[in-house]
């Protein structure tokens, strides 16, 4: 495909546009744009006569890539020598082209207004969304390649709902369902283009139950109610540099050329990792668990927990729920440069030191932020220490108030059902029992999300009881660190809940947040676990519940 733009015959382009069913007048307008080009050549400093070409597309013209894609609908002939080397090069080119087609499928989901998305929608799926598109009759090679990647793309894409203003009800994958994130209910014609914001009661900031039951089948209603609503946030995605975004997409799609993947494709190579020389190399090993990669994550000082999985996208999902926006950018940069270092080990037998790689990643982030203002601070060099606690005051004072209530709280979470609950015990300044409560929570998607929503419920409970000076105790160190700092995982539902907690905390005169080990928090964990057995919120004033009386 060398110099393919220069060799595009105008007559062929016109024929392709007409064959695809474009209106004659539109085709003529496009051809006027293409054919009204001329060149002059400087010869000894003097301009020559005009040169009028008869073929070619102008590179740099924003219209040219789309016209080229249309012409690529036709079959292509590949000429090469019949030997192993050239056959391998052709296979590599086709693999690259296939992966790029997958990225085109990503555009169909995320950039519905783009010209290429609108062209393919008009040709192949005029009524349903891309998620509901099928191969159809007489598909082109490009469309067949895109459809081959569709299931992979659609299975991993989710939009996080904030205020719902940027998410289309039927065209975007926004339900938190691992198997199928799309709405099942057939779309009424009058609701074409409707957005999720129309399903939210703007007075209460919650899902509008009557509207949901009027429009959707009961299974969709149940799935929608599992999603927290956050009206103060937009439905946005994290912005990272295009190269790292493409790399991350390939890693999450498991199409990076690791030794395991290459052997699956029958490329006979040594499966041993070039970095450590011990284990076979899959994506999780290459980027996370290899000795070299592990030393880099240790050097990064990111608060990444030990996640027992061999599936990279599962590991990355957990990390995304824990880190703040700067931490996520730092993580994507580290992943990108670990892979570059891996390629250096394969081709040049060279690996940088962990400190050098970390410095390179930080420098790349800093340069990106200077140009795009995609963040305000670098990730912290060290996470807050476990015994650090922060006093938050609506009315600052040098000393803590004399009478402070102490509140321990905890959450319970069932990962198989996403069911969650919370429990809390309140004591007076002498440590004597005052009251307790337990309640179920909206369905959550991770343990950290459960802890954050439990904290929100407990703070609301304390505020409604009129307590204004409290000490909070949690056994979730990550939550405590976020509440004790100005950062948080803002791109996730966890971030929404943490921001809500901070907002409620400002209504207190004094609030002190501390971490306690799990062994010191068994009472509230017992209460939280028992909440699944109750049909409503339970309160125990003065006399504790039988489930915890033995622990007090």
Explained architecture:
It is a single chain. Helix content is 43%, strand content 10%. With 552 residues, it is of the alpha+beta class. It has four domains: 10-74, no CATH class; 85-156, no CATH class; 242-372, no CATH class; 390-549, Nucleotidyltransferase, domain 5 (2-Layer Sandwich). α16 (447-464) runs parallel beside α18. The chain is globular, with a radius of gyration of 29 Å.
**Which CATH top level class of the largest domain fits?**
Alpha Beta
Question: What percent of residues are in strands?
Answer: 5-15%
CATH topology of the largest domain: Nucleotidyltransferase, domain 5
CA-to-CA gap between the ends? 77 Å
- Strand line-up in the sheet with most strands: 5-10-9-6-7-8-11
**What would you give as the CATH superfamily of the largest domain?**
Ribonuclease H-like superfamily/Ribonuclease H
Net shape: globular
Number of distinct beta strands: 11
Treating each run of at least 4 consecutive H or I residues as one helix, how many helices? 20
Mean pLDDT: 82
**Tally of separate domains:** 4
CATH level-two architecture of the largest domain: 2-Layer Sandwich
Brief account:
This protein is of the alpha+beta class and 552 residues long. The protein has 20 helices and 11 strands.
Q: What keywords describe this structure?
A:
11 strands, seven-stranded mixed sheet, single chain, alpha+beta, two-stranded antiparallel sheet
List the helices and strands and how they pair.
Elements: H1 10-19, H2 24-35, E1 42-43, E2 46-47, H3 64-71, H4 84-110, H5 115-124, H6 141-156, E3 200-201, E4 206-207, H7 209-215, H8 218-225, H9 242-252, H10 259-264, H11 283-289, H12 291-300, H13 312-322, H14 325-348, H15 354-372, E5 390-392, E6 405-414, E7 419-427, E8 433-441, H16 447-464, E9 469-474, H17 477-483, H18 493-505, E10 510-515, H19 522-530, E11 538-541, H20 546-549
Parallel strand pairs: 6-9, 9-10
Antiparallel strand pairs: 1-2, 3-4, 5-10, 6-7, 7-8, 8-11
